[in-house]
Write a structure and sequence with these properties.
Layout (H helix, E strand, L loop, with lengths): L11 H10 L9 H12 L6 H10 L6 H13 L3 E6 L2 E6 L7 E5 L5 E4 L2 H13 L10 E4 L2 H15 L1
Helix pairs in contact: 3-4
């Protein structure tokens, strides 16, 4: 299931420029940052930092590894990207222009499935209230085996039985 984008008042680039300008010590928006933001928001996909470094280099972009890592941290801080920890992996996901959502992660093939369910939000609000806790954000990652890997496993078992 692919999540629909939601209407936003600014492009990711405009939002990031505004974030940089609003810092206690305003920062300039560089050409490398522009190329990185454009690349990241061209399509909706999850990615790891090193994967992004490789993609940018294959595309002939000049962003250094250090610039990529620094810019990713700023994009998270600006509310444009969401950082999701999956075991030892750190993936980045679009936060700006997409609804809040959760993730199913296959331990075998690493497929990531996005989903939404209003009951999760309701349950988390109820749990937080029961504990006098004010939640500011959450990340839910459900790990397991995707349907394709389960089907492959079933097919393998059938071949062994025959």
């Amino acid at each position: 299931m692919s999540l629909p984008s939601i209407a936003v008042s600014q492009s990711p680039e405009e939002r990031f420029r505004e974030y940089l300008a609003s810092r206690p010590k305003p920062q300039r928006f560089t050409e490398q940052q522009r190329e990185l933001v454009e690349h990241v928001f061209r399509k909706h996909s999850h990615f790891e930092a090193e994967q992004l470094v490789d993609e940018l280099h294959r595309a002939g972009k000049l962003a250094s590894r250090a610039t990529v890592y620094r810019t990713l941290a700023k994009l998270v801080d600006a509310g444009l990207l969401r950082k999701v920890e999956i075991g030892a992996r750190t993936i980045f996901d679009h936060d700006y222009g997409y609804p809040w959502h959760e993730h199913l992660v296959c331990d075998r093939c690493n497929e990531i499935v996005e989903f939404q369910h209003p009951g999760i939000d309701d349950a988390l609000k109820e749990i937080a209230a029961q504990h006098g806790f004010r939640a500011t954000e959450h990340t839910l990652v459900v790990r397991g085996t995707c349907s394709a890997c389960l089907a492959s496993e079933q097919a393998g078992r059938r071949r062994l039985v025959m």
